[in-house]
Design goal:
Elements: H1 3-17, H2 31-44, H3 48-59, H4 69-78, E1 93-104, E2 118-122, E3 125-136, E4 142-149, H5 158-162, E5 169-172, E6 186-188, H6 199-209, H7 221-241
Parallel strand pairs: 1-5, 5-6
Antiparallel strand pairs: 1-3, 2-3, 3-4
Helix pairs in contact: 1-2, 2-7, 4-7
Length: about 250
Amino acid sequence: MTGEDIILRLFCMVDDAMKDIAKHPQVRLYPSELVTIGLLFALKGAPFRAFYRWLKREYHHLFPRLPERTRLQRALAAHRGWCARFLANPTFFTIIDTFGIELIHPAREGRSPRQVGRKGKSNYRWIVGIKLCWLINQQGQVVAWAWKTANVHDQAFRSLATQFEGQTITLADLGFRRRGEPQANLKLCPPGTWPERRLIETVFSLLERVLHLKRIPHRVSQYIEARLAYVAALFNNLLQLNNGQLSLAEFAL
């Protein structure tokens, strides 16, 4: 599948989901064009400057009214809420876990008073960055997500699962256990039990290998959140394009 095929198929899916959103007369891009560009940015995984140069060089014929780079980046961040349209519905069982994302090298910690990332542990190693929490359904689709700094314990993400109490049973590791508090719809799984929970490890490996999300260059909260929103929307769209199969290597640009 060529890059142009991927772009056109993503655009068709996005356009079908956003028919009710009208184009503002003062903007250059239609809402579906803007969201498609956001999905491409999440798929490409490069710094935004490099992504913009690539998009303008290779696919300017698909986006002839592409705005200036900084204006485009601000628009993507401002309209990140549109990505919620592409989140999936919960199934009988869902799975929750966190994924560590590095923002800066640990040696640079504390150099800037505006630093967003914090020092915490991810996969038994120290990072300075954030934690991304995904709640996925039995098909691997993202149902809900949230992020916090890396020094925050997994317990802080419990509300992501408990908001669906009565709709789903959420499988979680013991990191989500909070003593003295009812578990609600959380099913805490000790090591070696409930192998179904390993599905989220496969999903996270795709985030690292295909979407290059283990380390991101963003330094401002709104751009971090925008990147994560487009990643979640992209992941669900790619699964739909691939008929639900968790093998996304063919979509790498």
